[in-house]
Amino acid sequence: MEQDQRILARITEMVADEHRLRQALAAGEIDDVSEQRQLGQLERELDQCWDLLRRRRAKSEFGENPDEAQVRPSSQVEGYRG
Question: Which residue stretches does the UniProt record annotate as biased composition, category Polar residues (predicted)?
Fold first, then answer.
């Protein structure tokens, strides 16, 4: 469960980064292109973290080793609907 806590802490950090980016855009500190590029990267990483956390929890629930779950490529995680 310690690893799950680290994943959740990383998710919290990325959400805070997302808010800072939006504030920086509103304050005119960054341009729209920079904000969109950085937000896109954050969103992909967030999707990967949530995916990993869900798969770790599922493994635990079914008596498997959650540490066997690995981060999947964003191309595999993006657009997942299930």
Answer: 72-82
